[in-house]
Structure formats: C-alpha cells, structure tokens
Amino acid sequence: MKSRVVALFLLATVFVSSAQAGDPPRVVTADGAITEIVYRLGLESLLVGVDTTSGYPEQTESLPKVGYLRALPFEGVLALKPDLLITSEQAAPQENLDRLARAGVQVERLPSVRTPKAALERIESVGSLLGNEARAARLAAELRSKINRIQKASSARGNEPKVLFILAAGNHSVMLAGEGTAASALLDSVDAVNAVSGIQGYKPANREAILASQPDAIVIAESTPGQFEIRSWPEVERLEAWQNGRRLVADSMMLLGFGPRLPDAMAAVNSVLPAPSDVAANDS
Amino acid sequence: MVLSVNNVSVSLERSRIVDGIDCHLKAGELLMLLGPNGAGKSTLLKAISGDLPYGGSVTLSGRELGQWRPERLARQRAVMPQRVEVNFPLTVEEVVQLGRPKMAPDRSDLVVDELMNELDIGHLRHRLVPGLSGGEQQRLQLARVLAQIIDSPGDRLLLLDECTSALDPAHQQMVLDLVRRLAKAEGMAVLAVVHDLNLAAQFADRLLVMKAGRLVHEGSAREVLTPELLETVYGFTARVVELEEGYPMVVPRRRGPSGAYTAPANPSCRQAS
Amino acid sequence: MIRDAAGRLGFAPYLVVALLAAVLVALVSITSGAYPLAVADILSVIAGREASDPVASMVLLEVRMPRFLLGFLVGAVLAVSGALLQGLFRNPLADPGLIGVSAGASLAAIAVIVLGNTWLGGWLAMTGEWALPIAAFLGGSCTVLLAWRIADRSGQTSVATLLLAGIAINAVAGAATGLLTFYANDEELRSLTFWTMGSLGHAGWDDLLVGAPFMLLALLVAPWLARPLDAFLLGESVVGHLGYRTDTVKKAAILVVGLGVGAAVAVSGLIGFVGLVVPHLVRQLLGASHRVVLPLSALVGGTLLVAADSLARVVVAPAELPIGLMMALIGGPFFLALLLRTKVI
Q1: Which whole number is the average pLDDT over C215-241?
Q2: Cross-chain residue pair A76–C320, CB shorter than 8 Å
Q3: For chains A and C, what is the number of CB pairs under 8 angstroms?
Q4: Using CA atoms, how far apart are residues B1 and C218, in angstroms rounded to an integer?
Q5: Rounded Cα gap, residues A127 and A138, in angstroms
Q6: Binary contact (C194, A65; C-beta < 8 A)
Q7: 3-state SS record for chain B
Q8: Whole-angstrom Cα distance, residue B186 to residue C183?
Q9: Cβ contact B89–C345 (<8 Å)
C-alpha cells in the first residue's frame, strides 16, 4: 500500500514536471465516482471534461461531456487537449485509450472499487495523480473515521439483516441486485446480507421473487428521483419491511458509486436496518 | 429432327402428371398442344424447358438436353412461361435486351428494335414493365424470348405456354401470325400450349391432344377437331364448322334451361359447301 | 442526351455525381472531427511534412483515414449485399438481416463478449484482440452455410426455403442473444448494447486488415452476378432459360453476402438501413438493372455511411453518437419520404 502510494507520487511528480511547470494540468475524468472525488478534493478547476456517468455534483453539467466511459471517443477526448485522463478499468474501447496514450495523454485506469478500503485508496490515488496527496489524505482520513463509526455501529447490532436491493434505472427497467454487484458489496460493508440469493448481477425484477425474499429492509436505488413507482409494484408495498418503514429510496450513484459519499450511503442503509430484537420478531 | 421427346414422364408430389409422351418436331413446324385443364400440357413443356426433372429422353438436335452447356442451349431453345411477373422498375427495352444471349452477334439493338416493333411494343420501350397491361406484358415477354434465338445459327426451338391468353383478338392474330411467319421463314420449330381451339386450328401445322398425362390424339386440325373428340376429351358438345378459309372452327352448343345441350336454332355460321 | 425517353437521367451523370459526392464526403470526413486541426497542418501531413501540431498526423493517418476507409467499405458492402439479396429474392424488402447473416454474426460477437472469460476463454486466448471480429465473421458465414444447407434440395437451392430458414435462424439467434443478454453482467451488457448499435469509434488499420480483404472480395465478385440477377427479376426459371447456371448464381450471391456482411458486422457492429435504403434509392433513380444498381449502390452506400459517421461524431462533440443510430435516424424518414413520393416499388 505504502509503496504504491510512493510509486504514484513519483509518477505524479514526473507528470507535473512534464506539464510545463506552473501550468495547471488539464484533466478529463471518465467515471462518476472519480469525478466526485475531484470535486470533493476541491480540484474541479483542473477538469476540462467528464463522461456521462459523471452527474454529481450538479456543476458537472457545465463541463463538456465526452460520452459514455465504455465508448470513449478518441478525438472527442483529444479535442479537450487533456494532459491526464483518469478513468476506471471499465473504460473502453481499448484502441482509443492506447491512441490517447500515444498522442501524449497520460491515461490512468484505476481499479474497480468494491470495499470501503479500496474506496479510500482510490481517493488517495486520485489525489496523487493530481499532485495533491495531502488534501486526499485528509479527505480519506475524514471518511475513514466516519466509515469506522458506522461499521462499529453495524457490528454492534450483532445481526445480519436481509435486505432487498432494487435498482431502478433507465426506462421502466426495475432490477433486483444479485450477487457480485456493488449493491451486494454495499450491504456487506454494513454487515447486511442480500435477501435475493442465486442470481448474478442485476436481473429484471420478478414479482414472486420479491414476495419470497422476505427482507428485513428494502433499499431502492434510483438513477433519477421518482423513477421507482411504488404503485407499479404492489408486491413491494405488501412487504412487511416496507410497511414498517424500513425502506430507503436514494440516488444510485451515491449508493453504488463507492465514491466520497460512501459513508453517507452506508449510514443511510444502516439507518433502515432493524435491531436484533426486530429481526427475531420477524423470524418467529 | 429439332426436338425428340421419347417416353417422357414427369411425377410431381408422387403423382404422375405426364405419362410416357412421345413427340417429334421438325424445323419450321408449328405444333400446338391442346387438352383440358390438368392434362399435363404445361408440365410437359416445363420438362422440355429444363424446369422439371423427367424420366425418358428429350433431345435437341439429337443431343440429350442434359448434355448441352447451359449457355449454348440458351441460343437454341427459348422458353416463354405462362406468367412472368416483374416487380422491379425495368424498362421494356431492358427486358427485351435481357433476352439477348451473351455471345450473340453484335447487332442486338437492331434485333431488339425490330422485334419490339413487330410486337407493337416499340412505343412502350422506355415504359416501366410493372405499369404495363397484361397484354402488353405478354407481348413483351414474347419479344424477349424471340430476341434470344432469332439470329442463332443451327436448330432453334421455341416453347410457348399460352402466349396469347391475355391478348385481344387483334393482337392474338398478330402474335401468332408472327410466330408462324418466323417458323416458316427462319425454320424455327415451335411447340405451343394453347387453349383456344380455333386459334390452334387456324395457325398450327399439327395438333397434339393430351388428357390425364397421356397423348390421346395427334394430327392436323381437321383430323383432330371432331365433335367426338371434343366430347370425350373436354366433355363438351360442339359442332365443327369448316370455314372457307380452309380450316375448321369449333362452335360450342349452349346448354338449354333443362341442362341438355341444344343446337342453335339458327346457326350463325354458314356451313361451308 | 442526358435524359432518356423514360425521363430518367442516364447512368453516366449519376455515376459522376456519385463519385463527386464520395470525394466530397471523403474530404469532409477526413478534415472534420472533434479534434480541431488547422488546414495548414492537414496539408502538411498530406504532403508528408512535419505539422505544427504534433498529434495532427496521428489524428489524420491513424484515426480518420482508417475510419473513413472502413466506413466506406462497410457502407458499400452492406448496400451491395442488400441489392444482391433483393434481386435474388425478387423482393425489394430483402436485406442482409433477412437470411440471418447479421443475426449470426452478432450472436457470435455477443457470445464472445459475454462468455469470453468463462466458456470461451480458449477462443480469447487463441485469437487475442481479434477475438470479436473473427467470431462475428465466422458466425455470419456459418449462418449463411446453415441456411443454405437447409434450403438445399438435392443440389437445388430453394429461395422460399432459404427465406423461411432465415426467419427461423433469426428467431433462434435472437433468442440465444437474449439468453446471453440475460446472463451478461452489467458491464458486459453495456458493451454489447453499444456493439448492437454499431460503431466505427474504434476503427483503426487493424480492423481494415481483418475486414477489408473479405469486403473487397465481395465487392469485386458482385458485378459478375449483375446479368444473371437481372434475369432473376423475371423469375427463377427464366434464369435457367437464359442460359445461366441458376444454382451457381444463387450460391455465389449468398456466399458474397455472407463474406461481406460477416466481415462488416465484425468490424463495425450492427448497422441497419443501408442495405435496404440504398439499393432502393438507386433503383428509383436509375431503374432496376443490376449493372447499374450494384456499382452505384456501392458508391452511394459508402458515401451515405461515411456522411452519417461524420455527422455522428460532430453533432454531440466531444461525445459521439452510435453510427447505427445515426443511420436509422437519417435513413428512416428519408425512406418514408421516398415511399410517399413514388408509391411504386
């Protein structure tokens, strides 16, 4: 870990020196969480473009959009004359990333994040890439203490409540989160378990599966507010957890991005999880 | 002999449609094939056209059909199917040009022009085929088919399947007259399926009558077109009138109110003396 | 005489116009893009001199050039394939999707995307970066062969059966694609969605190396089929009467389409409408003779696709629209207008 930060630091210094001393680097970010980090670090003045997954905070709207991170255009990115492109390993197509690198753009692909620890490391990586590891370290420390507090609370709960995780994104598509998803990872971080087992990834919601899941709490991630219409899903409304108010409807990027808002996401989920006594009552 | 058909049979869907037909055709001869619906006339023609597999032997200029190279055969044998539907915007001239063989002598434009004029479609040459009337389309197809073999060397065989069915009487006369003239002048052998007995009587050198896949009669119009044969082959009653022009004419009898055939009270045609 | 008696302009003026349009669109597509290039730099690169902008030569020679060539080839091949199939089936609605080529090619490509790191790991290891294009190409060709085998009746290819087989193959391939989509994870889903919308965004010399030989072969063989295909317009039996080997012609046409479209789908994903609209347009203007329809479809198809691609990469710059989407956006209304105006097929 330490050696990695040092390596990144060295890289960053090389980079900064190459970008004619004094001139602030022009940066494009192509990943919602990474963009959020840049804003939280207060370095948004460096940004000259973002991708379409970067919708938070709202100020991103004034920046040029280079398209979807899985279909990054070569010329579109190059036209912004960036010195640095920070993106995740999901970025594609590879050909265009290679070409950008050959055209002199420093292309950094950060690994996907599925744990709080990795989320903090990513913040530090972004900080070093932007030559501001001190600020990044402060932010990471601040978030770390929040996360620790939340995790302490959730382990103090001493139970593993089952949570039904619903993702409402795009036109009328309502999906259940299965194993191997960021949703599962989020639940994991607060000692909760996915109420839906046996499916991989996000799968179209099945009404019977919702009834059978018998969750202790319900989390609904929306890509735009109001996207999930409870009227269309009477099964969800009928669930005990819904009626008991153990439900959370929140922004999907906040919940699933594992960015700087991760503690908020964890706290929000935690707040709807039942105490052990409730779970026991539910089981009986 | 241009065409020799020996013991030819065709089966479709396990039933025998054409059953052991023999016929022969000399250069310059115009042979018409008659018979009721379902007799197997068109099927026989398709077998000779190479559209259907057959049993027996069909030779053109003494050579079995299967042994001809397709492009050589196309210069000796032309086929006009019963229906040709064109859904694409080809012009009349383009379709006639399509008939011209690849290795034809280089005077296609002349041949095509002449044929279009002969068949009274010259004025339509730039019109699109899908917009033509049925009769115009039929004349067009005949022009295309003639363009294919009209100036080929060697024996030539023209196969026509109901080539006048959509034509008005004037054009029927015009078309069959042209076919007959070409047969005589160019030595083309013509085998035509027709339904109109009177046109057959007027233009054919020889008639062939099929019923249920078999050849039931063969001979000149006068020999073939008899009230007895019409009764047994077609099942209708008719008088046959000998015309001054030198060929017979078939006059069907109307059914009376009782359903029985009645002779017309006052024959409209004068009996030839 | 420029205008013939049917009121249609002759072949030559249209050919000249089409060539000019192709050249124009080539210039536009090479000189325009999200990345601003000075005219002086473009000229320097063309003249082989050092440009003032160090990435100018890369943008022009490694990105825009192969993209233009690939787009033109793909458009030409799709249009010519559409024309071939419409002639073969005597149906102006036929397009390369009809006999299942596109479906087969895309199924194979999607299989690679979804099963690449599980069941098809061996394939990936074997073919490396070219896994997707080669799979799409094989998928397209295999589908054609399959349709052909099904339609084969003791050496004769029944066009009606071929059509039915195509419909069935499309259904099966569609279902298999759906199944794969269901098993795909989020990430795979996104990349296959983008792939089915068609894209030239990644185009490079590599793609040309994979696809161009097959596409060029298809374009070179197609003109040989022009005359017999004209005969096809009069009916299948007429082809034989006119002295062409009907079955050879059919097989050649199907093979050309399989090769060309398989390769096109392999390098650019699914791009619709070109195969349907372009031959149709050419026929409206110049008649149905394939000696005219085939070469002009190639020119117009290539031009149209490059034009759509040029537009796709500037309208939402710095982002890009998927070319398949752009094509449908342009092609759809255009086609409808054409239908309304003429009402004759």
Answers
A1: 93
A2: yes
A3: 88
A4: 46
A5: 10
A6: no
A7: CCEEEEEEEEEECCEEEEEEEEEEECCCCEEEEECCCCCCHHHHHHHHHCCCCCEEEEEECCEEHHHCCHHHHHHHEEEECCCCCCCCCCEHHHHHHHHCCCCCCCCHHHHHHHHHHHCCCHHHCCCEHHHCCHHHHHHHHHHHHHHHHCCCCCCCEEEEECCCCCCCHHHHHHHHHHHHHHHHHHCCEEEEECCCHHHHHHHCCEEEEEECCEEEEEECHHHHCCHHHHHHHHCCCEEEEECCCCCEEEEECCECCCCCECCCCCCCCCCCC
A8: 73
A9: yes
Instruction: State the pLDDT confidence band at B266, using cuts at 50, 70 and 90.
Output: very low
Q: Containing H/E element for C5?
A: none
As a whole number of angstroms, the distance between CA C75 and CA C25 comes to: 13
- Supply the pLDDT for residue B257: 67
What predicted TM-score, i.e. pTM, was given to this entire model?
A: 0.85
Chain-centroid distance, C-alpha C245: 27
A242 — phi, psi (to 5°)?
A: -65, -45
Interchain contact A68–C (C-beta under 8 A): yes
Q: A residues 178-217 near C, CB within 8 Å?
A: 180-181, 200-203
Interface probe with C: pick from B79, B88, B146, most Cβ of C within 10 Å: B88
Contacts (Cβ under 8 Å, ≥6 apart) of C43: none
Higher pLDDT, B33 or C269: B33
pLDDT in tens, A210-245: 888 899 999 999 988 888 888 888 889 999 999 999
Are B128 and B146 a contacting pair, CB within 8 Å? no
Of B172, B171, B210, B238, which Cα lies nearest the Cα of B31?
Answer: B210
Q: Does pLDDT of B265 surpass 90?
A: no
Indicate whether C132 pLDDT > 80. Answer: no
Q: CA angle, C302 as apex, C301 and C305 as ends, to 5°?
A: 85
CA distance B13 to chain C (A): 14
Residues with pLDDT less than 50, chain A: 1-20, 280-284
C247-258 pLDDT, tens digit per residue, is: 899 889 988 888
Q: The sheet that has A47-50: what strands, in order across it?
A: A47-50, A27-30, A84-88, A106-110
How far CA C135 is from CA of A278, B249, C104, in Å, comes to 54, 71, 10
Q: Among A93, A96, A103, select the one facing C55 at the smallest CB separation.
A: A103
Q: Is A104 exposed, middle or buried (0-12, 13-18, 19+ CB in 10 A)?
A: middle
C91: closest CA of chain B, how far (Å): 8
CA distances from A98 to A94, A101, A105, A215 (A): 6, 5, 10, 46
Buried/exposed code over C137-160 (b: 16+ C-beta within 10 A; e: otherwise): bbbbbbbbebbbebbbeeeebebe
- ipTM, two decimals: 0.89
Q: Give CA–CA dist C91/C94, Å, rounded.
A: 6
Measured between CA atoms, how close is B82 to chain C, in angstroms?
11
Would you place residue C343 in the very low, low, confident or very high pLDDT band (cuts 50, 70, 90)?
low
Interface test with C, best of A50, A63, A65, A74 (most C CBs within 10 A): A74
Contacts across the B-C interface (CB distance below 8 Å): 89
Neighbours of A6 (CB within 10 A): 11
Pairing state of beta strands B189-193 and B30-34?
parallel
